[in-house]
Amino acid sequence: MFLTILFTFALLFSSSQASVQDFCVADLSLSDTPSGYPCKKPSTITVDAFVFSGLGVAGNTSNLIKAAVTPAFVAQFPSVNGLGLSMARLDLAVGGVIPLHTHPGASEVLLVTQGSILAGFISSANAVYYKTLHKGDIMVFPQGLLHFQLNSEKIPALAFASFSSPNPGLQITDFALFANDLPIELVVKATFLDKAQVKKLKAILGGTN
Amino acid sequence: MFLTILFTFALLFSSSQASVQDFCVADLSLSDTPSGYPCKKPSTITVDAFVFSGLGVAGNTSNLIKAAVTPAFVAQFPSVNGLGLSMARLDLAVGGVIPLHTHPGASEVLLVTQGSILAGFISSANAVYYKTLHKGDIMVFPQGLLHFQLNSEKIPALAFASFSSPNPGLQITDFALFANDLPIELVVKATFLDKAQVKKLKAILGGTN
Amino acid sequence: MFLTILFTFALLFSSSQASVQDFCVADLSLSDTPSGYPCKKPSTITVDAFVFSGLGVAGNTSNLIKAAVTPAFVAQFPSVNGLGLSMARLDLAVGGVIPLHTHPGASEVLLVTQGSILAGFISSANAVYYKTLHKGDIMVFPQGLLHFQLNSEKIPALAFASFSSPNPGLQITDFALFANDLPIELVVKATFLDKAQVKKLKAILGGTN
Amino acid sequence: MFLTILFTFALLFSSSQASVQDFCVADLSLSDTPSGYPCKKPSTITVDAFVFSGLGVAGNTSNLIKAAVTPAFVAQFPSVNGLGLSMARLDLAVGGVIPLHTHPGASEVLLVTQGSILAGFISSANAVYYKTLHKGDIMVFPQGLLHFQLNSEKIPALAFASFSSPNPGLQITDFALFANDLPIELVVKATFLDKAQVKKLKAILGGTN
Amino acid sequence: MFLTILFTFALLFSSSQASVQDFCVADLSLSDTPSGYPCKKPSTITVDAFVFSGLGVAGNTSNLIKAAVTPAFVAQFPSVNGLGLSMARLDLAVGGVIPLHTHPGASEVLLVTQGSILAGFISSANAVYYKTLHKGDIMVFPQGLLHFQLNSEKIPALAFASFSSPNPGLQITDFALFANDLPIELVVKATFLDKAQVKKLKAILGGTN
Amino acid sequence: MFLTILFTFALLFSSSQASVQDFCVADLSLSDTPSGYPCKKPSTITVDAFVFSGLGVAGNTSNLIKAAVTPAFVAQFPSVNGLGLSMARLDLAVGGVIPLHTHPGASEVLLVTQGSILAGFISSANAVYYKTLHKGDIMVFPQGLLHFQLNSEKIPALAFASFSSPNPGLQITDFALFANDLPIELVVKATFLDKAQVKKLKAILGGTN
């Protein structure tokens, strides 16, 4: 009798099983689409596709901003494809800063797990919201708004950011303005910064023109 | 003059016609994406792609649960791809039951067309909603919540389920727990069921470990 | 010990239970929003909110089109609010017809449960897809496209339509053109119909101007 | 020191840069999906992909409807793919008309930049909303509803339509009914138009059967 | 007989008519929701709700940036609520500039209707895309990315922007940094700008701290 | 001149500022909607609305499952409303377990910050994916699928879960089956569990009937 039940169950929904899309682990070798990457075949997926250890490793903060960001976006962690979320690790050494930036495609929640971080964002109405976050605090940064994080203490800080998209994007204002070939004259016109200031930061960040 | 109008109309919107995506019949030979399968070329589609006769055939209920589910999901009926809905047929012989299950990706509306069905679902707040449905009754099962259907009469029952996704998914709790290689010890820890109970159902449903 | 476990579980997730939105039964007394109606409080909801018997009653086809549509949209069946689907019943007496119409807000799957129905839709590319559906057949009508259903046999036909929205909308072309105060001259200009034809149908359908 | 900063920034987010999907310019050579076309590789994209000059050219209105529509949908302007909007240019010579039509996949906002246009739409409740628009006026046409535009003055009119989808679709009622092989008998049954009227318009618009 | 048909039709879909949400004109007196404002009752809406003349009036460019933006977002034009698009008018006098900014909630298509505009945006990968647009040209600015527009000729320029949201938002970088009470020290740390530069622009733009 | 610029900027976009919906902090006193709660007025919001310290406090694991979940969903942290994500803290004492459960409305990413956790989920195809996660590891649990977490070491474990919805929901299978008034007979029929097993767990978990 047991065998009969087994047989029955095995047949019961057999035709639908093959097509169920519980998950869609990204096949990064194919072209992206507006909804994300095409899926690898479920039969080729093991548990390792759903686990990522890269956020367990401290980023290298031996640099001038004394900070590092380690992403677990779809490019690094393909199993978040199509699931509407992703993560990143933030290491901020003493004096470290994640400069002013936006995520064009996602809202963010930041969780501080070590040290303290002074974090803030600016709304479209130009209102400023900033506060010092301590271990265990979380803070929301709504989609597309300028924000920043600074280590505000004398010990290294560690935090983890969660995003509402597998591919939140990241636009650092300094990079956008000074680290490319956007002509100095256009930067000056579009920002009202002094020409000397623009030249100085272009030189630092490797921009040309 | 008639020819002139014809000519005019033919030209009028000619450049846009080729690109209109009124529908996106799934090309199941290509990789799925988070939004569904890539589309077959519209020029290859005939009316037969939009019609499915598989729900007109009774499922085989000569089994121990005395029930059968016949899906018309995207895998069986590719023209629902991208359109946000699909269907299935439920046959319940006398004493038949569709055991506790969820659809991870869709809400359901069940329409009883023959006999009577005792159907119910359980909310996240653990509230139970169940009722005997008669011919012509419809009942909603919100997305992702556990639910079940039992034939509650002495005649066979027939019902049709509509889903809010071309690919609603289906997770039968008994299968998830007992019909695979999930170790008995893990099942016991995660469910508080007795070890003997777990072993018994694993044996019935063909699970290992 | 049992009591202890009970106590523990009861506390475990207590703070989240109250806010879980498993469903959102429409409070039709409040203003609609782009995502649907505000929700009634879950504590006021019984199983009867999730069950609707209105589709079990034949529509009155003693009229000139010999057909009737009985909707179970959000206005009639508030528990579909926010769940992305709804249903309707179609009764077509011998010779009955559901005239040319669109659903601006949803795709449709039609299930024939009695008799035969000649159904068709027209794509943006002006391609025509029509076929006679028999008992048990389902057919897809993609969102926003013109379609119609005719009883094609000598016995009454019965069908159930499922929609990919709680509020699919319904625009019958004849009503839109002839059953209101749209000036005859505008109808003529916008449709190239003869003035006499427009006048005739306006008279039949009660249009003015 | 400058070089050091440069080096630091270049490394900082290096792993995430390659995967950012700021945009998804359509690769029209691949199969469409429900969310739009697969993306061309960002490295192959220049500014020219984001600029379209086709709307700067007047459409040819030397025809009987004295009107022309020039689309900038995803097929003509691939960079709108995945971005949720597109445009079109409307030229209406004196006496010109854009006949009754719907966009199954988008709402529209029309901007008049020259002349005057009498525009209107009809709701599901068969309410008619029409008005003469002058230069600088904009008017909304909600998704899927029948609407039309007529030149209401003695000078040519020019307008630009914006749509809430890269691929709004376009179904002209006259084309759908009369410009294909939909049998006359079916048109008559589905619309209540006189057979002679149907035949006449089929002849004009090139329909068969 | 005519009366009979009329009567029949009037009854046919009567129960669904009242609930059809073809549109959802914003009731700005009620609280906004994540999907937009609650709807005004359809019975209170006339065609004037769907027409807006505010974009026909030139903005006042007698100011130092020699530019003006006139929005037709949901706050000014409530009928776009829930429809996924909106518009704005841009006036740029000779030498005028719309400074660097983002729209956190929408992609944009810009249509130039008079003069020439040098427009550009910067991607997350810091690639710069800019070009001079002439009358009739349209250009896409993907959601959330920094962009700017300059009058590049010796005559006034006029353009109309379409957005993929009824409420696209607008964050001008200069305002976000210098026109509020964000402490100078934080601006310096988050942007690497010189303190003197920050002070100067804060003074110009009215920022404090 | 500075004053003039200030004045100009202040006017420039004045009309649009008031309506920008950068965020929608939930007004929990109003009725929920399918897209989330209505928004509090932005002018009443301070930075404290965007910061939550509740996840910094260890949950009480002095109970029989030796575990606790502390949510930061919309009910506890109203600023995630409408932003598509939320978080929770998991404390697992030695031997602790989060029993088999689903989140009907969200996918989850779990981050282990202390100890080790044996976590797993089961797909619709009944495939089992489980692994021991160590400090710094993240694991994905796709929406709606059954999953569990066990402390697999001899020290307490701590983890933080991120969800792709402000209101992910939580359905614990044991609660759904045994902690309410679902009749024993129905549980037996819908699960194939032995009656004695059902009675035993109902007694433990406080279920009736």
From TrEMBL, chains A, B, C, D, E, F:
Binding residues for Mn(2+): 101, 103, 108, 147
Record-stated family: Belongs to the germin family.
Disulfide links within the chain: 24-39
Protein name (database record): Germin-like protein
Subcellular location: Secreted, Extracellular space, Apoplast
Main location: secreted
UniProt cross-references to Pfam families, sorted A to Z: Cupin_1
Positions of the Cupin type-1 domain: 53-199
Signal peptide (residue range): 1-18
Keyword vocabulary terms for this entry: Apoplast, Disulfide bond, Manganese, Metal-binding, Secreted, Signal
Source organism of this protein record: Ilex paraguariensis (yerba mate)
Alphabetical list of SMART domains matching this protein: Cupin_1 (SM00835)
GO molecular function list: manganese ion binding
GO cellular component labels: apoplast
Binding residue positions for oxalate: 103, 108
